[in-house]
Specification:
Blueprint lengths: L1 H16 L1 H8 L5 H23 L11 H21 L7 H22 L7
Helix pairs in contact: 1-3, 2-3, 4-5
Length: 122
């Protein structure tokens, strides 16, 4: 939960405060609608980061935290599928490869947590 919160906080701060730079890096220019969407996505990442940070001490996957586990799993799984789909067109961008691997690991881990019986660490 802590590493997921850290990743999402980093992405959220980046998207919120450096959206123009992200748009320039991806070659989308300065379309105001896309600029707004990038900032809204940054807010979404920050919201997820705060939610994961606040739930870091809970047993994730039990009946009380099942929605949290499923929400994280769906986010990481769907984003991993989108990144895999985008790989052929972006083979030269290392950031796409890195995000695909990181998101794939989180998708696997949250899938494991969401679909198996929770266990308390000793």
């Amino acid at each position: 939960m802590v590493s997921s919160a850290g990743l999402m906080a980093g992405l959220g701060i980046t998207a919120s405060f450096f959206s123009q730079e992200i748009m320039n890096y991806t070659g989308t220019g300065s379309v105001s609608a896309v600029y707004l969407v990038v900032q809204v996505i940054g807010a979404l990442y920050l919201g997820f980061a705060f939610m994961n940070w606040m739930a870091r001490a809970n047993i994730i996957g039990g009946i009380y935290s099942k929605p949290l586990a499923m929400g994280n799993f769906m986010h990481f799984f769907v984003a991993t599928m989108a990144l895999i789909k985008a790989l052929p067109a972006n083979m030269d961008l290392p950031v796409v490869w890195i995000l695909t691997i990181v998101y794939g690991v989180f998708a696997f881990l949250f899938g494991w947590v969401a679909f198996t019986k929770p266990a308390r660490l000793k």
